[in-house]
Design brief:
Elements: H1 5-17, E1 20-21, H2 22-32, H3 37-50, E2 53-56, E3 63-66, H4 70-85, H5 90-100, H6 105-119
Antiparallel strand pairs: 1-3, 2-3
Helix pairs in contact: 2-3
Keywords: DNA-binding, Transcription, Transcription regulation
InterPro entries: BlaI_family (IPR005650), WH-like_DNA-bd_sf (IPR036388), WH_DNA-bd_sf (IPR036390)
Pfam family, one: Penicillinase_R
Length: 123
């Protein structure tokens, strides 16, 4: 299941903070931009139904955690984007990404290390 932009924001909070109550997630999101508590609650309920988060109901306040690791979710989203927008070509994705937003020298160095490791069969 592909998360929406709002769901990704919530997942980001859960990945950063770990398991959290609705109130804790709301406080973080509301600090970034005004967000209603009931909106966060409803989104977490929907996300639970979709399997994007798991809910621990043993405590008085339900605690939510991301059902998948950040890397797994990002991998699914990127894979879907590569297939849908770039005809399955990872090279096209990378070239478009680098032409759209210039990478820092540190990012370019990391990309170079990754490419070298692929070439060497390490990955």
């Amino acid at each position: 299941m592909r998360p929406t932009a709002s769901e990704l924001e919530i997942l980001g909070v859960l990945w950063e903070q770990g398991p959290s109550t609705v109130r804790q997630v709301h406080e973080v999101l509301d600090g970034r931009k005004p967000t209603g508590y009931t909106t966060v609650l409803k989104l977490l309920q929907i996300m639970s139904e979709k399997g994007l988060v798991a809910r621990e109901e043993s405590a008085r306040a339900h605690v939510y955690r991301a059902a998948a690791a950040r890397e797994e979710t990002q991998g699914q989203l990127v894979g879907d984007l590569v297939d849908r927008a770039f005809g399955g070509s990872a090279a096209e994705l990378v070239m478009r990404a680098l032409s759209t937003r210039p990478a820092s020298q540190e990012e370019l160095d990391e990309i170079r290390r990754m490419l070298d490791s692929y070439r060497g069969g390490a990955v």
